[in-house]
C-alpha cells in the first residue's frame, strides 16, 4: 500500500472573488500535491470555502440575497477559477455542508461535556473584516482604532458567549513545538508563535449571538459557533471525523496545512489546542508563507488592490502564470507583484531560456539529423559533465520540494536549462556539422535527453508545457506513462525517433507599447488624483468609465479599436452608495469640500470639487454614489478615499443620488 499525503489550503472566505494572493497558496499546494503523486504517494489535497459569519451575512443582505444563495454564487466562481488554474484538488469542503455542520456540533458538545467550554458575558473590540476580536491594548495600538488590514473602524461588541479554555493547554503546546522543530515552518515564524504563547493565552470566545448566519450551538440555538472554530474544523470534518473513523484514520494527521502568515496563530495555537482537547494527534506541519503585495501593501479584497488571475491567464497563458507565481518569490517570504516583474520573468526564463533551448535543439535536430534523434557518439569531458548535471536534476528538485522550497526547485531546473544553452554555445554543433564530426550526435542526443528530463521534472509546476516538450521529442508514449524516477535515468530516447518542432513555446512579450508597471502605477495614481482634482478645478467631469484600474484596464489597442470595455472590466469599478454624515470646506481651497460618508460598515473621508455648487449643510443626509475601490489620493493635503460621481453641463453640476433610500454601502451595478 502506498504512503498517504494529506495537504490543505485555508478555506477561503466566500465573500467575494478570489485574487492572485489566494491563487498563490492554492497553486503552491497544487504543485506539492502533483509532486507527491509523482513520487508515488496517495494524496488527498483539500481546499474549500469558509461561508459563515457576519461579514458574509452583511454582504448577502447588501445585494438582496439570502446568505446561502450568495455563497452558492461565490463558490461556483471559485470552482471556476480552480478549473482555469488546473488545480487538482481531491476534496472541496464548504462549511455549509451538512457533514461539516454535524462535525462542528459534535465537537462543541464534546468540549462542553469535558468542561473545556464555559459561558460568560463578553465585551471586546471586533473587526468584521478579520472576523476577530481585539483586546483593549491591541485595539488602542491601531491608529484611530481602525483595523490596519481592512481599514475599517473596530466595533465594540458585548454579548453572552461560550469560551474555550485555551490557557489550560499552553504548556503542552509549547512542549510540542519544542519537541517537533518542523511543526511550524519557516523557523522565523515558529519563534513568533512561541513568544505569543509565552505572553500568556487568554481563553477564546467561540460563539456569537449578534448574528445568525452560522452553525447553531447544539444546546443553545440562540448562539452560533464563531467562525474560526467552524473554519478550522474543516480539516477533519472533510475526512470523516468523527463519523467515519476509518477514513479519518487513513489521512489524519495532515502532513501540511499551507496558509498565509496572517492566520498562523489560528493554526499554530488555537487549532492544535482544539485537537488536544479532542485527544487527537496534531498536524505534522503548519507552513505559513508570505504575502503577495501590490503597491507595498498586502493584496486584499477589502483594500481593493487585487489582481485577477483569470485575466492574467488570458493574457499570458496558464503555464506562464503558474511558473511566475511559483518561481518569483522564495516560498515563505513576502513578495511584490508587478506586471513588469511578470513580463521580465516570462521573457527571461521561459522565452529566452526554456523556450529557446527547445527551439534551438529541435531546429538543429531538424537541420543536422533530418528531424530524427541521432545516436550518441564520442563523449568528451564537457559532454560528460553536462550529462551528470542533467542526471542530478531530479535529486536536486526532490531536495528542494521535500522542504517545500518550490521556488528553489524551479530555480534548479532553470539552472540546468541555462547550462544547456551554454553547452550549445561551448560545443558549437554547427561547427561539428561542418566537419562531419560524430560528436555532433552526442551533443544533440544529450540536449534532447536534457529536454526530456526537464519536461519530466517540470510536471508538478506546469500543466501543458511538459507534455508539449515531451511530444515534440517524439516520445512513443504520453508523459503520464512515465514515472518520476525516469527523470533520473539516461538514454530513454530511442535514436531515430522523429521530433517535431512546433511553434515557440513562450513567445517573447514585447513591452514597448506598455508602460512599465512602476510607471504605470504612478500614472494610475496621478490619474486618480487628477480625476478628483479635475472636479476641484471645476472642469468638465466625466464619470464611471473613466475610473479604471490601470492593471486590469483593457489593452490600449482594444480600446482604440472599439472604444468598448467588457462587462468584466466594468465590474472592476466598484460603485457604492454612501450617506453624507458631515461636510465642510477645505481650508485654503475655494472649490473643495471634505465629506465624511458612511458605507454601512465603514466611514470614509472624500474630497470633492463641488464647493461652488453645494452648501456643505445641504449635503448632509444625502445618499450619493462613490467610486469605492479608487486608490486613495491626497488633495491639498487632505486624504480622499474614493470619488463621488456627478454630472455636469456648461453651468450646472449635479451630484448623483438615489431615487429611493437603500442601505449604506449598497453596490451600484
Ligand atoms: O483567512 N498573499 O480566508 P481568506 C498571499 N477563511 N496569500 C494570500 C494573499 C496575499 N496577498 N491574500 C490571501 C481566511 N492569501 C479564512 C481561513 S482556514 C481554516 C480559514 C491566501 O479568504 C493566504 O493563504 O481571507 C491567506 O492565508 C488566505 O488566502 C486567506 O484567505
Question: Strand order of the main beta sheet, please?
Answer: 3-2-1-12-13-7
Largest sheet: 6 strands, parallel
Q: What's the tally of helices?
A: 23
End-to-end Cα distance, whole Å, is 55 Å
Query: What ranges have pLDDT less than 50 throughout 5 or more consecutive residues?
Result: 512-562
User: What small molecules does this complex bind?
Assistant: ligand ME8
On the 0-100 scale, what is the average pLDDT?
Answer: 88
Shape: globular
| Proportion of helical residues | 40-55%
What's the number of extended β-strand segments? 26
**Residues in β-strands, percent:** 15-25%
Structural class by helix and strand composition:
alpha+beta
Radius of gyration: 29 Å
Amino acid at each position: 500500500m502506498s504512503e498517504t499525503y494529506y495537504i490543505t489550503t485555508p478555506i477561503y472566505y466566500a465573500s467575494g472573488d478570489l485574487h492572485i494572493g489566494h491563487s498563490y497558496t492554492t497553486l503552491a499546494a497544487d504543485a506539492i500535491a502533483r509532486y507527491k503523486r509523482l513520487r508515488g504517494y496517495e494524496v488527498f489535497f483539500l481546499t474549500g470555502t469558509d461561508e459563515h459569519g457576519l461579514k458574509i451575512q452583511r454582504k448577502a443582505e447588501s445585494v438582496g440575497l439570502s446568505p446561502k444563495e450568495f455563497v452558492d454564487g461565490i463558490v461556483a466562481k471559485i470552482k471556476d477559477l480552480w478549473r482555469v488554474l488546473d488545480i487538482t484538488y481531491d476534496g472541496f469542503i464548504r462549511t455549509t455542508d451538512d457533514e461539516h455542520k454535524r462535525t462542528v456540533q459534535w465537537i462543541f458538545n464534546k468540549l462542553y461535556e469535558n468542561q473545556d467550554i464555559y459561558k460568560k458575558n463578553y465585551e471586546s473590540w471586533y473587526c468584521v473584516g478579520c472576523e476577530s476580536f481585539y483586546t483593549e491594548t491591541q485595539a488602542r495600538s491601531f491608529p484611530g482604532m481602525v483595523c490596519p488590514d481592512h481599514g475599517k473602524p473596530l466595533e465594540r461588541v458585548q454579548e453572552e458567549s461560550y469560551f474555550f479554555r485555551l490557557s489550560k493547554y499552553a504548556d503542552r503546546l509549547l512542549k510540542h513545538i519544542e519537541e517537533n522543530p518542523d511543526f511550524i515552518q519557516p523557523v522565523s515564524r515558529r519563534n513568533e508563535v512561541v513568544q505569543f504563547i509565552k505572553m500568556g493565552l487568554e481563553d477564546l470566545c467561540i460563539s456569537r449571538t449578534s448574528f445568525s448566519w452560522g452553525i447553531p450551538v447544539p444546546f443553545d440555538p440562540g448562539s452560533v459557533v464563531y467562525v474560526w472554530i467552524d473554519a478550522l474544523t474543516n480539516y477533519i470534518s472533510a475526512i470523516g471525523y468523527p463519523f467515519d473513523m476509518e477514513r479519518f484514520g487513513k489521512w489524519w494527521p495532515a502532513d501540511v496545512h499551507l496558509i498565509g502568515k496572517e492566520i498562523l496563530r489560528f493554526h499554530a495555537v488555537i487549532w492544535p489546542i482544539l485537537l488536544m482537547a479532542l485527544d487527537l494527534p496534531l498536524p505534522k506541519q503548519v507552513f505559513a508563507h508570505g504575502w503577495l503585495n501590490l503597491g507595498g501593501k498586502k493584496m486584499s479584497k477589502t483594500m481593493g488592490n487585487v489582481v485577477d488571475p483569470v485575466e492574467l491567464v488570458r493574457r499570458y497563458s496558464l503555464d506562464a502564470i503558474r511558473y511566475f507565481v511559483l518561481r518569483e518569490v522564495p516560498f515563505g517570504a513576502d513578495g511584490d507583484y508587478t506586471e513588469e516583474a511578470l513580463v521580465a520573468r516570462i521573457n527571461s526564463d521561459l522565452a529566452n531560456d526554456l523556450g529557446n533551448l527547445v527551439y534551438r535543439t529541435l531546429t538543429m535536430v531538424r537541420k543536422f539529423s533530418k528531424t530524427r534523434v541521432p545516436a550518441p557518439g564520442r563523449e568528451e569531458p564537457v559532454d560528460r559533465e553536462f550529462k551528470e548535471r542533467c542526471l542530478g536534476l531530479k535529486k536536486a528538485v526532490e531536495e528542494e520540494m521535500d522542504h517545500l522550497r518550490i521556488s528553489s526547485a524551479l530555480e534548479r531546473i532553470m539552472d540546468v536549462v541555462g547550462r544547456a544553452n551554454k553547452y550549445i554555445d561551448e560545443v558549437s554543433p554547427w561547427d561539428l556539422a561542418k566537419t562531419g564530426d560524430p560528436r555532433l550526435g552526442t551533443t544533440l542526443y544529450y540536449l534532447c535527453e536534457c529536454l526530456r528530463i526537464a519536461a519530466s521534472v517540470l510536471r508538478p509546476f506546469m500543466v501543458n508545457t511538459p507534455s508539449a516538450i515531451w511530444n515534440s521529442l517524439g516520445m512513443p508514449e504520453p508523459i503520464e506513462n512515465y514515472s518520476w524516477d525516469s527523470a533520473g535515468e539516461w538514454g530513454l530516447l530511442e535514436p531515430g525517433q522523429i521530433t517535431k518542432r512546433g511553434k515557440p513555446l513562450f513567445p517573447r512579450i514585447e513591452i514597448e507599447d506598455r508602460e512599465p508597471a512602476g510607471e504605470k502605477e504612478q500614472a494610475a495614481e496621478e490619474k486618480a488624483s487628477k480625476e478628483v482634482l479635475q472636479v476641484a478645478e471645476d472642469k468638465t467631469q466625466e464619470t464611471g468609465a473613466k475610473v479604471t484600474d490601470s492593471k486590469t484596464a483593457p489593452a490600449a489597442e482594444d480600446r482604440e479599436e472599439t472604444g468598448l470595455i467588457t462587462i468584466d472590466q466594468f465590474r472592476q469599478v466598484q460603485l457604492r452608495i454612501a450617506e453624507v454624515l458631515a461636510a465642510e470646506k477645505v481650508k485654503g481651497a475655494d472649490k473643495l469640500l471634505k465629506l465624511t460618508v458612511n458605507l454601512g460598515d465603514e466611514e470614509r473621508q472624500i474630497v470633492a470639487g463641488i464647493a461652488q455648487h453645494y452648501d456643505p449643510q445641504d449635503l448632509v443626509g444625502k445618499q450619493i454614489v462613490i467610486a469605492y475601490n479608487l486608490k486613495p489620493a491626497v488633495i491639498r493635503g487632505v486624504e480622499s478615499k474614493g470619488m463621488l460621481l456627478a454630472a455636469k453641463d456648461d453651468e450646472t453640476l449635479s451630484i448623483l443620488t438615489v431615487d429611493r433610500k437603500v442601505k449604506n454601502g449598497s453596490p451600484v451595478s
